[in-house]
Amino acid sequence: MIKISNVSKTYNNSIKAIDNLSLNIKSGEIVGFIGLNGAGKTTLIKMMTGILRPDSGSITINGMDIVEDALDAKQIIGYIADSPDMFLRLTGYEYINFIADIYKVPLSVRKKRINDLAEKFNLLDQLNKPMQGYSHGNRQKMMVVACLVHNPKVWILDEPLIGLDPKSALVLKNMMKEHAKSGNTVFFSTHVLEVAEKLCDKVAIINEGKIVFYGTLDELKGKYSKKDDLEKLFMEVVSHE
Q1: pTM of the model
Q2: CB 16 within 8 A of CB 8
Q3: Which one, of 114, 140, 139, lies nearest residue 129 by Cα?
Q4: What is the 3-state secondary structure (H, E, C) of 154-219?
Q5: E strands of the chain, at which residues?
Q6: How far apart are the first and last CA of the chain?
Q7: CB neighbours (10 Å) of residue 26?
Q8: 185-189 and 154-158: which strand pairing?
Q9: DSSP conformation class of 109
Q10: What pLDDT tens digit does each residue of the chain (241 aa) get?
Q11: Residue 123 zone, left/alpha/beta (φ > 0; ψ -120 to 50; rest)
Q12: How many CB atoms sit inside 10 A of residue 172's CB?
């Protein structure tokens, strides 16, 4: 469960990226996070994962405050950043082991977990190669493997499907569904509204740092219009706010 209470974040004392935002995400749910560029999606995700500190308000992950109980809260989070271009001088195996060390994944289970995940995403032949030689898609898949290596309860993913081939995207979507079915939480941003429609239990739409809608897509259609075109529906929502 993720509870965000009256959170605000301002940059350079003038740009309010997040404005008194509150949001409750239950265990067992997949929630899609949607908004225009610059709406505040990545800022909120970075605060949820403890990378940025809120100016005010609080965020708890399964009851643990991300600021006050940072280490314990981060241990149960799996995070995919909005860019896969990091630690590129390391091989894939070195990078995943580095992440596994941070999360104290026991050596007795680590190798099998890495191999199982790498096999799911067709990366076994890439593990011993430097990531700077990877395609963008393979870098993204390696971020997914590293995100999941410690078997986190809460997945917070910033545009996780960008760059993935259709087969890998389907694998990740199915893993997200299974994770939620097990009573865990999945929160991810996406700009592909069809993905949100097919995958999510609920969607949260952000505009100018505020949540302007949170609920199911059926509730969204009922509140704003009966449009089947999700892009037009989304633009109707943000234009009303």
Answers
A1: 0.92
A2: yes
A3: 139
A4: EEEEECCCCCCCHHHHHHHHHHHHHHHHCCCEEEEECCCHHHHHHHCCEEEEEECCEEEEEECHHH
A5: 2-11, 15-25, 30-35, 56-61, 64-65, 77-80, 154-158, 185-189, 202-207, 210-215
A6: 28
A7: 14
A8: parallel
A9: H
A10: 999 999 999 998 888 999 999 999 999 999 999 998 889 999 999 999 999 999 999 999 999 999 999 999 999 999 999 888 888 899 999 999 999 999 999 998 999 999 999 999 999 999 999 999 999 999 999 999 999 999 999 999 999 999 899 999 999 999 999 999 999 999 999 888 888 888 999 999 999 999 999 999 888 878 776 556 677 777 777 776 5
A11: alpha
A12: 22
Q: How many CA atoms lie within 13 A of 112 on its CB side?
A: 3
Tokens of 49: 């994962």
Alpha-carbon dihedral 37, 51, 2, 185, rounded to 10 degrees: 80
Which two structure tokens, joined as six digits, stand for 70?
Answer: 């940072």
Contacts of 9-14 with C-beta under 8 Å, sequence gap 24+, read: 9/40, 9/43, 9/44, 9/47, 9/52, 9/54, 9/55, 9/209, 10/55
The number of beta carbons lying within 10 Å of the beta carbon of residue 107 is 9
Residue with tokens 């241990």: 75
